[in-house]
Amino acid sequence: xxxxxxxxxxxxxxxxxxxxxxxxxxxxxxxxxxxxxxxxxxxxxxxxxxxxxxxxx
Length: 57
Prior knowledge:
With 57 residues, this protein is mostly helical. The protein contains 2 helices and no strands. Helix 1 packs antiparallel against helix 2. The protein is elongated and about 40 Å long. The two termini are 24 Å apart.
């Protein structure tokens, strides 16, 4: 597995964790764990999309 594949896998794992957490943490009551999961997802999504944009150039 290359590092690029690793980024995608981490991005998807963060998305799964964030979505699974929303079962117990609603948007109106975001807990500390939910905030951390959202931040991790956001960071990985930004990195992945930036890499995709670079590939298109």
